Amino acid sequence: MSTDLTGRGVVVTGAGRGIGAAYAKAFVAAGAKVVVNDLDAAAAESAARELGAFAVPGDASSEAGVAALVAAARDQLGEIEVFCANAGVARGGTEAVDERAWDVSWNVNVMAHVRASRLLVPEWLERGRGTFVATVSAAGLLSIPGAAPYAVTKHAALAFAEWLSMTYGDKGVRVHAVCPQGVRTDMLWGSGSAGRALMEPGAVDPDDVARDLLAAMDDGRFLVLPHPEVAEMYAGRAADPDRWLAGMRRMAAALPAVTMGTD
């Protein structure tokens, strides 16, 4: 099945750079009308200007921010037919990391998806058509040593995407969960020596992730794996959790601390 994006309204959060900017570029190239959202207003406006898209800067995680984004996007696009919940934060540390790191991670990586869906799903059900894209991470399928807030909230983001699909997939709402490993973005470069050791080998470009997303939309596939080997790791984890956990402990012991941001 082929997805015709010509004239369709698309919103991409966290689209000022990285994976989000690549999504926006790919959707514009496919003929869609695109809203570029980013907390960094200058980045959103620059990306939108370069692409011929609409810039709607702002916080795509808070309840008020999501409501403002959806309202502004509807003003620009008419209907929102594809929403890419791409904005994310990577916070490192153990269970002992401060409450703010957990709160920010939960709001940006999970509740932003819930809040957008709350506003969009009723309209999509009425129309019988809509697409929700969650940029998750291979960490949502597997995990990552040394970054408890990131690992836990990415698992939750995947669980919410699965829940949306199982609840509304037969009612016209299509859901895609994008789960790459290393992607050559600022998040990768800022993940510290341990993060780079885990993710930089085999890292792909953001444009590769966007290409794989559009292919999954054409195929109707829920799970988007720019690194196909992640599927084998995920299957191995399910088949023998104790063996998988032992391997993860060895990996964690061999790595320095992950130094993702904690602010």
From TrEMBL:
GO terms for molecular function: oxidoreductase activity. Gene3D superfamilies: NAD(P)-binding Rossmann-like Domain (3.40.50.720). The keyword Translocase does not apply. InterPro entries: NAD(P)-bd_dom_sf (IPR036291), Sc_DH/Rdtase_CS (IPR020904), SDR_fam (IPR002347). The keyword Lipoprotein does not apply. SUPFAM superfamilies: NAD(P)-binding Rossmann-fold domains. Transmembrane segments: none annotated. Keywords: Oxidoreductase. PANTHER family: 5-KETO-D-GLUCONATE 5-REDUCTASE (PTHR43669), ALCOHOL DEHYDROGENASE, PUTATIVE (AFU_ORTHOLOGUE AFUA_3G03445)-RELATED (PTHR43669:SF3). Belongs to the short-chain dehydrogenases/reductases (SDR) family. This is NAD(P)-dependent dehydrogenase (Short-subunit alcohol dehydrogenase family).
